[in-house]
Amino acid sequence: ELFLEQRNEQSTGSLVPEFIAFVREQRNQTHRVFHWLIGLQRPFLLHSDVIDALAHLCQDDPDLSSTVLARALAQCQEVTLTPSWIYLALRRRVARWEFVRLHIETMDAQAVNVAEYLMFKERTATGGHEEPWGLEIDMSPFYRDQFKLREEGSIGRGVEFLNRRLSSRLFEELGKGDRRLLNFLRMHSHRGQVLMLNDSIADVAGLRNALRQALLPLRRRAASIPYEELAPELRPLGFEPGWGCDAARVRNTMGLLLDILEAPSPQTIEEFLGRIPMIFSIAILSPHGWFGQSNVLGRPDTGGQVVYILDQVRALEREMRARLAEQGIDIEPEVIVITRLIPESEGTTSDQRIEPIAGTQNARILRVPFRSDNGDVLPHWISRFHLWPFLERFALDAETELLAELGDRPDLIIGNYSDGNLVASLMSRRLGVSQCNIAHALEKTKYLFSDLYWRDNEDRYHFSCQFTADLIAMNTADFIITSTYQEIAGTDDSLGQYESYMNFTMPGLYRVVAGVDVYDPKFNIVSPGADEEIYFPFTETDRRLSHLHGEIEQLLFGEPVQGQSRGQLQDRDKPLLFSMARLDRIKNIGGLVDWYARAPELRDRVNLVVVAGHVDGNASGDSEEREQIDYMHYLMNTHGLDGQVRWLGVHLDKFMAGEFYRCIADRRGAFVQPALFEAFGLTVIEAMSCGLPTFATCYGGPSEIIEHGQSGFHIDPNHGDQAAALILEFFDTCANKPKHWQAFSDAAIARVQERYTWRRYAERMMTLSRVYGFWKYVTDLERAETSRYLEMFYTLKFRPLAQSMLG
Ligand code: UDP
Ligand code: LCN
């Protein structure tokens, strides 16, 4: 911790020159450190390994801790070692990398560039020869002329930055900027109906004039006069529908435009653009399927995505309708979720072409099958890791179906996950529509060395295709929504999920020296929410679904049911520690059971309830899930947990899940999310909304959702004993001071209400799509060079990789 503190204090400047001088001058001290690191006999050391090593070395040599060598090692995200050479990757601050190498015999250190660093890594990993002519992917020449954020605190607030740039640009380019705005306002229409301005306004002077002329009589009209009554006066002046639903709104919108023409400010620009009727229909892509509304919740690793999209659709439709109505436009918005049609649908609706989305007026799921080259429909489900060869054909088929469904192209395409984002790239390019990406989970940081040792896992995961698709989609997107800051740029000590695409290598395939820039203003943090109809505080007794209580009581305490549950809680009076997740390795449910099993005091104090996977291994079609099921049984057997752990291998529908959280809260329990890594973690905000004190992993989204010690607790899944101690301490304190529980419950509810609501999400999303649309227009940001480069990358790399999967 001392090193990290020191590092943070001196975080910005480069340490490299000082480090190089130190190595030269303090040869013995330096040699001792690196000799020791080489002695670990591991080719790659990660940040945590280096920190541990440093702590160890400082015990014998306390002076070391104040040296530049220690500070540099504290910045190290990765060390690559051979018996004679050591290469260090230093992360000076968020997304600012430097590389140095050192020869252990000559004790000579030099700075190296990223390509040299990656080449050394390749050779160390493969034992092969240097590949100076290996393919290097470098997006940096394309970024050169683009505006970039400079401060790490601005990352993820791209739209604020764009609004500022837009206002100064419009202001600086007086005349030119205004004309662009005028032309932009003239291009809006919907199915032949002209909106905002018609052709009778020829230039900016004419626009100002018309605005003044329109405002004079408008100021005298009652605020509530509907637009229809005003239209006959406004149209001859050049104004078409879109300015507002009544006199007050029209006045206000016109006033905003006059302000912008006078002296634009970021706030007026955002507010004005937010009102322009630009978005009538949205296509949302989530190709890998098993996407439905009941009894279907994705398959391994797509659960949260399905929940997210369904809630997102409801919120977006509501927001689109409200905005159109406010602007006086009577058009029904359309939202279409495009996913895969799966003929072998196992009793679900996944084989139906169209399914209306509950809770919306007009939104629907449109399913399009995967087809192979000869046109045959793929009948069965396939995992998200194996669908790459089908996506190109799917993109074309989905485009045809979408156009038929909408009668026109959509106004915005939103991709989800690596597969959806790739299809969104293909479709947006062909249709000329803005593209928004949402990752949900980038697999790259989830699996250690998934890039460097990609070949070893190729048959199982096909990361070569996935990371290529990710790079293409990130660079074609007009804007990218993330759930948290750390998803983009990590923390002081850990790298962000997007940041991990800045530079990496897949030996033998290609080496990325600049893949994405997290300082790009395309990134915006817009966090999802928890459905407030479902996940509300346990104290709201009138809304509680009390008819489910008997069933929940049975689930918690009833006799175990063959194939559904295991364990029966002996002492019903203890509080319940609850966890719910899909049973895959990363979710670490087995880890939680293991810590619990090894903490006798915690076992005495609380019971553990786990909703995860299947109790019967044969019921799972997923190899990773089956491994976890076996592990759970092993733990239950070896630690004799059946009287203290209730394992439910069932899927709770969302009404049941909401009430389940609340029933745990009734009994003054807590929720645990023990994942090794969690991109965001919907269950965390669901549990908190219901009023459950929550302990969640410090790796990933939960570290931002929860403020440790205030609205919940962070736990380190790699230190289960400490996590168990923290949970025990909490319950001990609650036993002596019942208000303690209440304080955490209240704070959890307040935190989610303040930060994680779908209302706020939809409002931001609609504003973003307009601001980015306008930005693209005024800057002529067609980015033809980037598109061409990415097309080449797609054709020459992605397609053969995907094709080769079909053998
Ligand atoms: N979920 C559910 N019933 C279950 C298990 C999970 O409704 O039996 C829901 C859970 O409430 C949450 C989603 O599945 O909304 C899981 O999302 P999360 O972000 O926690 O993880 P993911 O599965 O996306 O990795
Ligand atoms: C995927 C995940 O892994 C979760 O962390 C997210 O909460 C979910 O998608 C929704 O974005």
Q: CA-to-CA gap between the ends?
A: 51 Å
Instruction: Using the alpha-carbon principal axes, give the shape.
Output: globular
Structural class of the helix and strand makeup? Answer: alpha/beta
Bound molecules: uridine-5'-diphosphate, 1,5-anhydro-D-arabino-hex-1-enitol
Major sheet: 8 strands, mixed
What is the spatial order of strands in the main beta sheet?
11-12-10-9-13-14-15-18
Q: How many separate helices?
A: 30
Q: Roughly what is the average pLDDT, rounded to an integer?
A: 93
- Give unreliable regions as ranges: 1-10
| Quaternary organization | single chain
User: Count the strands?
Assistant: 25
The portion of residues assigned to helices is: 40-55%
Strand content range: 5-15%
Radius of gyration: 28 Å
Primary descriptors:
807 residues, alpha/beta, eight-stranded mixed β-sheet, seven-stranded mixed β-sheet, 14% strand, disordered N terminus, binds uridine-5'-diphosphate
